[in-house]
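Example for tutorial group B:
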């Protein structure tokens, strides 16, 4: 079986999202994601502003929490799957495994955030700016508690994979050597998606430590939301 087979299922989940056919939902989704990313940056300001963590923080915000940037990547993933046999020869196996964890996180983020966007459209005017209370009530109605914990568990798994696979000098060298071939077959976006994980890790002592610090605070926010705590997003 192709090492990229799991990407096919992830792409199906992504293509099944309703916002592709609904411009109003798409706009609200992007607004909800913008709110979430701003909230994350505020919550984790100290962690994210530490010099050695800044590249990984950008990787989180730009890659792992979905957004319009993922649409272009999804198109390239579809192309990559048509040439899976070539891609598997180009990209080291452990880089593929780690990349698929990242793609899985991005797709899950899109699924959960689309549910939030749909709930917001159901309860509020489409043009009403999103605020903390709107988001708090929407998350309670949707009861995403377990799904959000799953998202955070997947992040912890990614941190372990980054430390285990992406710190290898041999793997990093092999990955850099295949850049030209990836460009030749037009897999640049997927290559960059994985490559940013390498770059983000370089200044860090441990991706696992960074991600555990992040997920611990996020788990507390999830728990506070579903416990009915006022202002749960402001730790």
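The residue assignment follows.
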């Amino acid at each position: 079986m192709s090492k990229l087979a799991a990407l096919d299922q992830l792409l199906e989940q992504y293509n099944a999202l309703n916002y592709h056919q609904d411009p109003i939902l798409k706009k609200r989704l992007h607004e909800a994601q913008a709110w979430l990313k701003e909230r994350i940056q505020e919550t984790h300001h100290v962690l994210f502003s530490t010099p050695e963590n800044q590249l990984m923080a950008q990787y989180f915000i730009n890659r792992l929490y979905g957004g319009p940037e993922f649409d272009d990547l999804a198109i390239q993933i579809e192309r990559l799957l048509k040439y899976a046999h070539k891609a598997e020869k180009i990209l080291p196996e452990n880089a593929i495994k780690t990349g698929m964890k990242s793609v899985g996180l991005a797709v899950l983020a899109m699924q959960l955030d689309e549910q939030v966007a749909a709930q917001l459209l159901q309860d509020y005017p489409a043009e009403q700016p999103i605020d903390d209370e709107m988001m708090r009530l929407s998350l309670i109605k949707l009861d995403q508690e377990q799904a959000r914990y799953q998202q955070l568990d997947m992040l912890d798994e990614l941190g372990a994979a980054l430390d285990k696979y992406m710190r290898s000098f041999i793997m990093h060298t092999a990955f850099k050597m295949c850049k030209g071939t990836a460009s030749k077959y037009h897999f640049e976006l997927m290559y960059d998606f994985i490559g940013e994980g390498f770059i983000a890790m370089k200044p860090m002592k441990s991706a696992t430590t960074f991600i555990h610090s992040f997920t611990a605070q996020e788990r507390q926010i999830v728990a506070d939301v579903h416990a009915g705590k006022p202002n749960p997003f402001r730790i």
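The mean pLDDT is 86. Compare this with the pattern of hydrophobic and polar residues in the output above.
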